[in-house]
């Protein structure tokens, strides 16, 4: 597609994103000084903080979630085959952020994308906050290819919207506090499972950093002003991944941070070692008999393969600087992950 410029747009074009809709997930107001919640909460929180957008939260009619001050609320049954109400709500929105639960019905995201196209929404984030979408082998092995392709192909087919994908890998605090099958830790029992030698570096991102990335992205100019404008624009990030990260670290790096935060030594932990490939295959076998509790085991084991698939920073670089994202403090994020784990705020996996 040929590069577009703001100078060539019709009268009334503002060259900035003003209206953003978020659908799915929980937009309940965050507790003071706590980072827990969900990706939808953090997107909402950071968009509110930058103060540049009118935000509309689209929830189901029966939802009882509290919505933060400053966010408009629209109650719509977006799973219905009749999308007229959803289309009406989406009219005038420039960006739609979809934050559905991973267990949502498979066709829900496609229904929402179709409604967004009917409403003329220019940009859609189709529920992709994680894996490198350009890494076909990683997505295939992680059972994510079908979801990726279904959403992107529908957007392309409709020809109305551009898509945005946030590549952030696993959420750090969530994964650290989520049990042995995620980053290997069980804080209640003080156990640590090392995958292989624990020395494979992967990228991982905190929830607040994901929120800041999306808020910063949507704060960019939409298009270059003219041919001489080389400043960052939203158009540069469309129809591809936006690569962000909080930390590039190994399991052993995580363990060092955990010990600093907890004031513990190796001798106070039960440490075991398992092979990532064996764990991955065990997860695959369990999923064949529809044991979906094994999904995290399969998913995380694959990311820690020693082939470097989990480290997109070294191969592709990051967009952190362009988006002016801060350098975060590892031990502070670790502290929050431990708190979330001990408080039972993460769906626990072993």
Automatic annotation (TrEMBL):
Keyword NADP tagged: yes
Alphabetic keyword roster: NADP, Oxidoreductase
InterPro entries associated with the record: NAD(P)-bd_dom, NAD(P)-bd_dom_sf, NmrA/Isoflavone_reductase-like
Alphabetized GO MF terms: oxidoreductase activity
Domain NAD(P)-binding: 35-122
The keyword Protease is assigned to this record: no
Pfam families: NAD_binding_10
SUPFAM superfamilies: NAD(P)-binding Rossmann-fold domains
UniProt family annotation: Belongs to the NmrA-type oxidoreductase family. Isoflavone reductase subfamily.
PANTHER family linked to this entry: CIPA-LIKE, PUTATIVE (AFU_ORTHOLOGUE AFUA_1G01630)-RELATED (PTHR47706:SF7), NMRA-LIKE FAMILY PROTEIN (PTHR47706)
Entry protein name: NAD(P)-binding domain-containing protein
Organism of provenance: Emericella nidulans (strain FGSC A4 / ATCC 38163 / CBS 112.46 / NRRL 194 / M139) (Aspergillus nidulans)
